[in-house]
Amino acid sequence: MATLMGGMGTPHRPVLLKETLELLDPGRGGLFVDGTLGLGGHSEAILEANDQTRVLGIDRDRDALAFARRRLERFGDRFKAVHGNFKEIGEFVDEGCPVSGILIDLGVSSLQFDSAERGFSFRFDAPLDMRMNSDSDEETAAELLQRLSEEEIANIIFEYGEERRSRRIARWIVERRDRGEPITTTGGLADLVARAVGFRKGEQIHPATRTFQALRIAVNRELEGLADFVGTAVDLLQTDGRFAAISFHSLEDRIVKQELRRLAGQCTCDLRLPVCQCGARKAVEVLTRRPIIANEFEVSENPRARSAKLRAGRKL
Question: Which of 182, 202, 220 is the last residue of a domain?
Fold first, then answer.
């Protein structure tokens, strides 16, 4: 159960699975929503916890949905999968339907990373796509780099990738574009970044890693609406329902942390303001004072768990 097979035969292990189950407590039964179904690892464990548990899985990636449906078909009508964005969760949960738990895993699935044509990884030389919903008409990463100004590209790489050399990378990208040689492939972008900034002594990751991460976040608008989603998810939960979020980026983790604190009644307004304007309300109990991270054994077994952070709250 704990290991599924992703694309290209790569083992897929759900991140922080044991810890997530402890916080969601699916043994209680009821309806659980997996807002980022992926390959179905977390959902499978939730369904196995109680034969009265049901799961609604949501994902933007039709390939992942097809994989998860095959994997979880043994659970019959206890499992349902829909194509969509977790931020539109209200459209998929029937009004008034009690929800016992909601989970989102904000990482990229093994299937996406290991599918060369999706353009998420520079391990393959492929079209620079990066769309999680590959059948949409949204901009690809290549189209984004073709349209944006040098300053806009630099800002994306700096803000979403936390890359201090973002301006140099953006300048090289635009210079190539101005010569009539736009960056259109993963290999082309990885090579450009490596030549623009080089490997620094002590660096253990490829210099293009942060740039690829930044472009993926921008292409899929991963941070947009995340704060609003946390509030919507909490409102859908029944009393004692659980919300859990696994993030892999400091900006995502910060948004989840701040929203859970606000929903726990902690005002985030400037202390000089006479009245609270952030909408703080006592709706949840925060179950994770600090984010839960993977232990050394899990990281050794699944290196993608290294940057994962899990936060959770209980509906009051």
Answer: 220
